Amino acid sequence: MKGIGGPGAARARKGFDWRRAVAGICLLAAALGCGAAQAEDGYELWLRYRPIEAARADGYRAFATQLLAGAATPTQAATREELQRGLRGLLGAAPPLAERVTRDGALVVGTPASSPTIAGLRLDTEGLGREGYLIRSVVVDGRKATVVAANDDAGALYGAFHFLRLLQTRQPLDRLDLREVPRLKLRVLNHWDNLDRHVERGYAGESIWDWHKLPDWRDPRYVDYARANASIGINGTVLNNVNSNALILTPMYLEKVKALADVFRPYGIRVYLSARFSAPREIGGLGTADPLDPRVRAWWKAKADEIYRHVPDFGGFLVKANSEGQPGPQDYGRSHADGANMLADAVAPHGGVVMWRAFVYSHETPDDRAKQAYAEFVPLDGRFRPNVMVQVKNGAIDFQPREPFHPLFGAMPKTPLMMEFQITKEYLGFATHLVYLGPLFEETLRADTKAKGEGSTVARVIDGSLHADTLQDPLTGMAGVANIGADRNWSGSHFDQANWYAYGRLAWNPDASSKAIAEDWVRMTFSNDPRFVAPAVGMMVASREAVVDYMTPLGLHHLMGRGHHYGPGPWVDGGPRADWTSVYYHRATREGIGFDRSASGSNAVAQYAPAVAAEFGDIARVPEPFLLWFHHVPWDHRMRSGRTLWHELVHRYTRGVDEVKKMRAAWDGLAPYVDAERHRQVAAFLAIQEKEAQWWRDASLAYWQSLNGRALPPGYAPPPKPLRYYQSLEFPYAPGNG
Amino acid sequence: MKGIGGPGAARARKGFDWRRAVAGICLLAAALGCGAAQAEDGYELWLRYRPIEAARADGYRAFATQLLAGAATPTQAATREELQRGLRGLLGAAPPLAERVTRDGALVVGTPASSPTIAGLRLDTEGLGREGYLIRSVVVDGRKATVVAANDDAGALYGAFHFLRLLQTRQPLDRLDLREVPRLKLRVLNHWDNLDRHVERGYAGESIWDWHKLPDWRDPRYVDYARANASIGINGTVLNNVNSNALILTPMYLEKVKALADVFRPYGIRVYLSARFSAPREIGGLGTADPLDPRVRAWWKAKADEIYRHVPDFGGFLVKANSEGQPGPQDYGRSHADGANMLADAVAPHGGVVMWRAFVYSHETPDDRAKQAYAEFVPLDGRFRPNVMVQVKNGAIDFQPREPFHPLFGAMPKTPLMMEFQITKEYLGFATHLVYLGPLFEETLRADTKAKGEGSTVARVIDGSLHADTLQDPLTGMAGVANIGADRNWSGSHFDQANWYAYGRLAWNPDASSKAIAEDWVRMTFSNDPRFVAPAVGMMVASREAVVDYMTPLGLHHLMGRGHHYGPGPWVDGGPRADWTSVYYHRATREGIGFDRSASGSNAVAQYAPAVAAEFGDIARVPEPFLLWFHHVPWDHRMRSGRTLWHELVHRYTRGVDEVKKMRAAWDGLAPYVDAERHRQVAAFLAIQEKEAQWWRDASLAYWQSLNGRALPPGYAPPPKPLRYYQSLEFPYAPGNG
After folding, report:
1. Which of A208, A213, A279, A202 is nearest to A237 (CA)?
2. What is the pTM of this model?
3. Mind listing the GO molecular function terms for this protein (chains A, B) (predicted)?
């Protein structure tokens, strides 16, 4: 067959290489478009394994002439299966299995325990831990081979995915010398999934957990969930909403949890549960949930024991307590530490952990919302058990398009802090706006807390290195509020998959480049054609700033529609809490706008290290992206551009919309390089995004004008409708409402 | 290529037949299992179009050597596209398009208006109406051809699907002479979908209508929905729950409804909406919804006009009024006819209809629930506008596993009655129990009302022929409460798709054989291998009786868990209405069980024609399947089997469980003939069904024993747990709750 030959043909010394022939027929058939075209509906995420172009494939085949990979454990079997699936898709046929290297180009995968070949290589696997791996070009018995080696099956699984990624992204396979060790121990997803399958802040359909049919029916989709997560190193999943339902701790549900844990275990993923603090009362029949009450402590201990009987490697609990109406230790005059430690003691004998969320704000205290978590938690520094992590959102308000890093990072040197990012786009356009969050995650991770001088990045806080003197070998971790649902494409839109992907890659390596991650993702998910890759990556990296511009420019925040958080609502006022309104956060008047968090205002800046506080607190030094986060500023304030603040705001909103228009034009131009199915959907969503970006701009400007009485600068189109029109819009069934 | 040759080769007179070559490569590739195996996840329903085995395919190719099918209208384009898709999948390649017949074996599809060839044949298309079609083997210009002809594009579309079905079920294509005309005009689905995407009594995931992204994003799935429905002749869909939300009539939602209507129109499907009777108050700002109030009439007229501006072929309204808390004309002292006629007048100028549900029961009247619809509607016979249909459930209670036909059938000779079946298995095991409902639908349709002597079948009532003397050319129709949701397999389980399929086939021809329909479906959806077909069809046709046996034998009814309707609950008692309990319906005591609907009881039998009433009302003549529906019977009553009633009940429950065990064994044996993916899922669901059938049996028997104080007959295993255990089970998140 034409095109199948070259170096590989020479290797087929042992008679007719029928695998090569089959591979050839398969590739020919694919080229002819035989049968049903492989649907590009997004289901396969970044693990599409489409045939590699012939010349390249031939070259790669030389590095996968045979596969040495055991299947003695479930993880080994999963690893081997993934390699076979991937190589079959990419190269037309899976390499034959072998027990020993007998050809040049063998691929050897495993651990010293699983592979005599690897054991014999005596590789330098120290420091890889359980999850790290090497990928190296070696010589075995005089033959070239690629080895993917680890200390543990889990590391080999991660290494196998990495190897496949090299092919998916068309990297060279000769002279490999890669070494990867995850920087954080716990790399988890948080599903805000309710037991009725509603996903809070979910825009990708209902919960994928079909509780009614579990445990007897385990949807094969759960395996694909596990594969996708393993491919990006995610090793834990919290199954249920932080606004928790105690029923998940009852026997009926523990059977179902166990079934899920059994599916995930071979992929290195442990299951965790959100624990409702009042469970001892709600399902335990106790009259109290006081963490210092011996009956309560005994109840949780017994409950933990019961959970571990079902799931021996259960990860532990995630807890939202005394926040937004959730029960907690403060209901009994106890502290967060009291509550966390009680649960920690219950799971410690089993190796479990507690992730205790710092997203709290008092019922009563009218202090600046941005200050409250710090005020509650810093006094508790060092008071938590070693198996407790305090889980802190990236910023002090709530997952806005831009927030300065949370002041708790660097301020609790004796407590392991876990980063909480939001992958689902609650405040960033739901599923229809193309917003790549890699830059947002990266910005936070690289932010310098200056807690111990320059270079005290948030990444170094959460990886334990910054406070190594006060915390010995602490737990480390990152949590991501998942954007996963029952939609065919998992995440609500094709590009939203990239946020799940980037989150996993950054949890593995918090210093990775979000742009490089975007490129990997684009290559794996769409195409390696350079005419596609560069523009697509460009769209992605520009998208975060676009949404900041059209929703919440210059440090503005929390201006969305009430309840559902869909669309603009800078006028939102009234209701049970001031800090649930928009007016609380923008404080716009006839003379200016912005929240004074400097010393003349709430002094939230003082919660940062002095060098940072000095910068943020000084209107002349604060980075412009944070101007209105930290300062109340007159509309006439002169910006670095030379424009007044008012003019700059109008400029930014307008620029944001223009950026979306550019994204649309760019995407239109990419039609020749991508399947029609996905091109059409992305194009339709970009059209929605442009409409909604325009809406955000117009509604916001109409409102600011109603306060400042100012005209738009010349050259800017006024909002086409009056303010009351925008204020009248209602969306009673916008998805994901809490 | 081996296997590709024979008669077809001779026809390739005009040079190399590259299409045949491609087809051959494709079939070879499929045989080799190239690339990703086509997932058998159920998404394609019965329109899978998998390659036909080589010898057969070759024979078929002789009947599809070229395709004459216009594409001048959207329906023509949809028709052509479906034929190309189907033939490509089945035969390896779509036949080339042609304008004239130039080869033996041409396939000619269309109408006299769309096809000069068809016009020239001067076929006997009278009586086909708009939706009927012919499929006939003819000779055109001396060449053999198959013609699929109709008067209208819609008929040609239906004919095209029928033609494809012939191949899918391996029927011969020579000497075809088929003529099909639908017996009912309106063949609709009723989606009980809410605007928040919850599907009431839905077990297949959330609603497929993604309202939030409509109208700008029209999920390609909507096209596949339309194709599936068109393939079984369904020509209308009511988008929203009969427990209606007035918001669907507001401009924001009408834009979304229009978008859906635009997708469905080419497939011959019209959109309808459930109308909330109190909409004039809720969204119209009026102080009343009195159907006789001129302002209310004007509001509905204007609303109808508005709807028709969006959707010019809008079908009309479905209304649930004065039932289960829904608002209605009786709130104003008006009749159902007043209410229906007001709406009918609003839509009549546009050709619209009103389907007014007869599922009503009074707040106050303590009369037998089974009598209430008749009591309310018979006095209104003849009082409805011609464009009103009264929509009547198949039985007088609520979609139980078995109900005698509704007494309204045959009792309203001056009013068009529309049948309402339930396709979703609210009372039949949700998505996990394999229950083929074809026999249930068929039993009702073939039931003899004897309203005008023998042969006054329910089918003849609803097709208008029985009352042709009192109703001239009436509306006719059937409604099916859909089992469709966002699940990948649409219906919650693979075999549940068969119920959607059978419903459509029976709506087209109410006298069709449910067993023949099952065979078609099995062949199209799974396999034509006779080793598979016969056992699978056997399983299906036996399944309905099995569920009757293990849930509600011998005429028992309404014994399920409260609210969610999941699992057994014969003890359900108390609450706001007696007729929402189980005890109301079984009336079991120490001495007997069953609801006396004979003359000595509620006399519901008197609502039937005298011959039927005499049969049902006489304990010696009533068919045993209806015994406890119509009679209160002592436990010692001697059954036809010779057993006592108690013994017979125990026998039936146990037999039902045994039947499921047989189904499991049968399915296990079918593994070699079906893909592993679906085999595994069906097997897992059958295991769940066996567990739940056992549960129904055990819980029910434990309860009956607690009342009758009797032991089980010898040889029957007692319930393994005490009654209180079964009574204690709670399922707060069972799906589909209302």
Report:
1. A208
2. 0.95
3. alpha-glucuronidase activity; xylan alpha-1,2-glucuronosidase activity
